Amino acid sequence: MIDLHTHILPEMDDGAADLETALAMGRYGEERGVEVIAATPHFFGRLSWDSVKEKVAELQGHFAQAQIQVQLVAGAELMMDTSLLQLERGEIPTYGDQGRFCLIEFPMHQIPVYAEEVLFDLQTKGITPIIAHPERYSPVVRDPNLTLAWLEKGCLIQVNTGSILGRFGSSVAATAEILLTHDLAQFVASDAHSLRRRPLELPEAHGALVELLGGEKARELVDTNPREMLAGDFVPKRTPRAYVKRRRFFLFGR
Fold it and tell me: What are the residues whose beta carbons fall under 8 Å from the beta carbon of 47, sequence distance 6 or more?
């Protein structure tokens, strides 16, 4: 399995607090069958892409010393902001520094008016945006088909394991199920921050995905699709479908 969204880099953001925690997270993933972990710290403010790549290489060295057989991939979770418009292509964090795919998150309770401009700008630079955990965004909970509009414009979607496992409440879990059963998501990742508060639980979510979608689709979300994306050549295999909310009918007595 491949985990595309983690905050495993120590002392970079609100993820791993120290090297010991980062090593424990890596070992936890290895013991449960995770082969590749993308380090995707929150990217905004003064954080530079070069510093992220340096930290990833440093942590990979610590993994080797600790005999943790997990490959780390450099990445970042970009905050949706107009400051991204000012960055040159090489300054924008992309998975493996290939300049092909990036992870980006929106504010939880609104879709910024400039979001479409930022997404389009990334695409004009040859970068495909992967929108992180939209099932947690209030506007998407109200209207899951917002993700369909993003997909139609060439973006991709990543769902969190915690959403699938009910860590963020029933509404988020229901929205995640809608996205997954309507082929509105291409990736599932942990968004792990530590060992206890949002752990690297991709294997646990894989079991839930098998029950919900079957083995083939489950494998695509946690292994096949991430592997192809990291190789720089991913094309969605399934056609997304719009979600149609079921109407409720009431019978009134005469």
Answer: 12, 41, 76
Domain assignment present for residue 30? The answer is yes
Token match 């992967």: residue?
Answer: 130
Does residue 244 fall inside a structural domain? Answer: no
| Cα–Cα dist 79/126, whole Å | 19
- 252 has a pLDDT exceeding 50: no
Residue 75 has a CB neighbour count (10 Å cut-off) of: 29
CB contact burial 85-113 (16+ within 10 A = b; e otherwise): eeeeeeebbbbbbeebbbbbbbeeeebee
In angstroms, the CA 39 to CA 73 distance is 6
Residue 172 within a domain:
yes
pLDDT in tens, 194-234: 998 889 999 999 999 999 999 999 999 999 999 999 999 89
- β-pair partners for 199: none
Q: Sign of torsion, CA 249 250 251 254?
A: negative
Report how far apart, in Å, the C-alpha atoms of 216 and of each of 133, 183, 210, 219, 225 are: 22, 13, 8, 5, 11
Q: What total number of domains does the chain contain? A: 1
Within a domain: 161: yes
Contacts for 170 with CB less than 8 Å, ≥ 6 apart: none
* CATH number of the structural domain spanning residue 7: 3.20.20.140
**Whole-model pTM?**
0.95
Task: Give the H/E segment covering residue 138.
Answer: helix 138-142
Per DSSP, what are the bridge partners of residue 105?
79
What angle in degrees, to the nearest 10, is found between the helix axes of 19-31 and 49-65? 70
Domain of residue 53 covers 2-230
